[in-house]
Inverse folding.
């Protein structure tokens, strides 16, 4: 099974500043068939189901603000939230869908400093 | 618009079974799959398995292999998740989510969740 590990577990960032969340997979999630990383990022606000932010490591889902960006390849990935807004307070999860046994990171809680 | 609407909260005793439904609308149900993900109180997301609404193929996480059954009814655009021999640590919010037709793929839309409480 592919294990996804996020860091940090929590962070506090000031409004308007940048937040960076890291995600590491125990094996590569880069698909040789299409040269795309099978890596997604989700945002979960309190009391809500998760919401897809990014897929293929860096492609924003429809309607996601361009303040959210993703980077990385293979086993190391980063979610960056620029110009932090109050509505960005949430837990963020990475997920690999490379394997049929897809798996999630443990989550990173983002708060306002 | 794409919607996944799940059945309501359930309270079950240890050893019982629960069956959660998930009705899709706003898209062609049989051209996608449905993944099931659970979240224990205050915890992270746990993938349970996936079913193709296209051909009925399933993938179950080994942890749930012997007590989990996923089905779909394409006549009503509904997916079902049945978990048997419930334990207290099965208390969680259970989510269905839209995924690929032939494999898990990208999960893009989620149901609102169904809270299952297991208590004696």
């Amino acid at each position: 099974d592919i294990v996804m590990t996020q860091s940090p577990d929590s962070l506090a960032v000031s409004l308007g500043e940048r937040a960076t969340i890291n995600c590491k997979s125990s094996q590569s999630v880069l698909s040789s068939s299409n040269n795309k990383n099978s890596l997604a990022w989700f945002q979960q606000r309190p009391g809500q189901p998760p919401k897809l932010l990014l897929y293929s490591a860096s492609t924003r889902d429809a309607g996601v603000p361009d303040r959210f960006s993703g980077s990385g390849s293979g086993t190391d990935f980063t979610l960056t939230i620029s110009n932090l807004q109050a509505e960005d307070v949430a837990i963020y999860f990475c997920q690999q869908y490379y394997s049929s046994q897809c798996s999630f990171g443990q989550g990173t809680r983002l708060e306002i400093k | 618009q794409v919607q996944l609407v799940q059945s309501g909260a359930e309270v079950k005793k240890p050893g019982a079974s629960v069956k959660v439904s998930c009705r899709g609308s706003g898209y062609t149900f049989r051209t996608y799959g449905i993944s099931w993900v659970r979240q224990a109180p205050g915890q992270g997301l746990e993938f349970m398995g996936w079913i193709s609404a296209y051909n009925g193929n399933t993938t179950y996480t080994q942890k749930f292999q012997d007590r989990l059954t996923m089905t779909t009814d394409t006549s009503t655009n509904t997916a079902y998740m049945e978990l048997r021999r419930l334990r207290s640590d099965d208390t969680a919010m259970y989510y269905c989510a839209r995924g690929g037709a032939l494999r898990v793929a990208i999960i893009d839309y989620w149901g609102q969740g169904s809270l299952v409480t297991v208590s004696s």
